[in-house]
């Protein structure tokens, strides 16, 4: 209660101060005066601050070691393409599996094509490559939607020429009134023309970053097996 009272008093004082300043500005009109300023040129020739460099160095080394950590293996080079790709299938399967471990009602995963930001090289898979694939801080969201929105979702995906998705479980929805979609928070918020997803009657925030799900999946499976089938809803 005391804090609340104090906050109100401070807010009142702040409002009074603003009012006084506005009145003063109206009463005392000062002429504009030109004040020249000095421009400072920034170049690559500036000396390095050794103290700052010494402070940053351990963190830089630690970050490099973390990014270079090997977590799995890929037999092939993969890149995204439409309507479907092994890379997109892999990412959606990873996100779906990690989510399904804690949320058994999930039906399928749908991500946006533009969210895949890199390719995946053959050979050892590192943590850094997962950061390149998904550099954003997007998190996994599970949406409960009425089944009537499934057809509308198909139309949107088709209009985009396809989107990355996990194996569809929609054939299990015949007797269900709702379906549970695993996606990212960007799409769940209506991004990339998916405003339809904002009609969800329930939204479950998992707190799991898409990138972390990929890292966990690769770590658990070690050698990635890619699915080259064309997927659709």
* Average pLDDT metric: 83
Number of H- or I-type helical stretches: 7
Task: Kindly report how far apart the N and C termini lie.
Answer: 55 Å
**Class based on secondary structure composition and strand pairing:** alpha/beta
- The coarse overall form would be globular
Number of strands: 7
The proportion of residues forming helix, as a percent range, comes to 25-40%
Largest sheet: 4 strands, mixed
Low-confidence stretches: 1-11
Largest sheet strand order: 2-5-4-6
Describe this structure in words.
The chain is an alpha/beta fold and 233 residues long. The protein has a domain at 66-224: Alpha-Beta Complex (5'-nucleotidase,  domain 2). It has 7 helices and 7 strands. It has helices at 2-27, 50-67, 86-100, 127-133, 149-159, 185-188, 210-221, and strands at residues 70-74, 108-109, 123-126, 139-146, 178-184, 202-209, 223-224. The strands form 2 sheets. The protein has a 4-stranded mixed beta sheet. Helix 3 (86-100) packs across helix 7 (210-221) and helix 4 crosses helix 7 (210-221). The longest helix has 26 residues, at 2-27.
SSE topology sketch:
Layout: H1 2-27, H2 50-67, E1 70-74, H3 86-100, E2 108-109, E3 123-126, H4 127-133, E4 139-146, H5 149-159, E5 178-184, H6 185-188, E6 202-209, H7 210-221, E7 223-224
Parallel strand pairs: 1-7, 2-5
Antiparallel strand pairs: 1-3, 4-5, 4-6
Helix pairs in contact: 3-7, 4-7
């Amino acid at each position: 209660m005391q804090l609340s009272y104090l906050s109100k008093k401070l807010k009142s004082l702040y409002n009074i101060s603003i009012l006084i300043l506005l009145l003063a500005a109206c009463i005392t009109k000062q002429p504009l005066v030109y004040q020249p300023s000095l421009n400072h040129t920034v170049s690559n020739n500036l000396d390095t601050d050794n103290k700052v460099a010494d402070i940053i160095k351990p963190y830089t080394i630690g970050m490099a070691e973390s990014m270079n950590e090997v977590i799995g293996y890929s037999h092939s080079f993969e890149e995204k393409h439409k309507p479907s790709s092994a890379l997109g299938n892999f990412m959606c399967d990873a996100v779906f599996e990690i989510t399904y471990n804690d949320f058994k009602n999930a039906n399928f995963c749908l991500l946006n094509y533009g969210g895949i930001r890199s390719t995946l090289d053959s050979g050892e898979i590192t943590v850094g490559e997962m950061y390149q694939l998904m550099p954003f801080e997007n998190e996994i969201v599970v949406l409960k939607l009425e089944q009537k929105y499934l057809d509308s979702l198909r139309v949107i995906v088709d209009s985009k020429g396809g989107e990355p998705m996990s194996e569809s479980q929609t054939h299990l929805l015949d007797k269900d009134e709702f379906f549970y979609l695993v996606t990212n928070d960007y799409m769940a918020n209506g991004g990339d023309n998916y405003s339809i997803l904002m009609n969800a009657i329930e939204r479950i925030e998992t707190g799991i970053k898409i990138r972390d799900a990929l890292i966990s999946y690769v770590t658990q499976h070690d050698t990635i097996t890619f699915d080259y089938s064309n997927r659709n809803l």
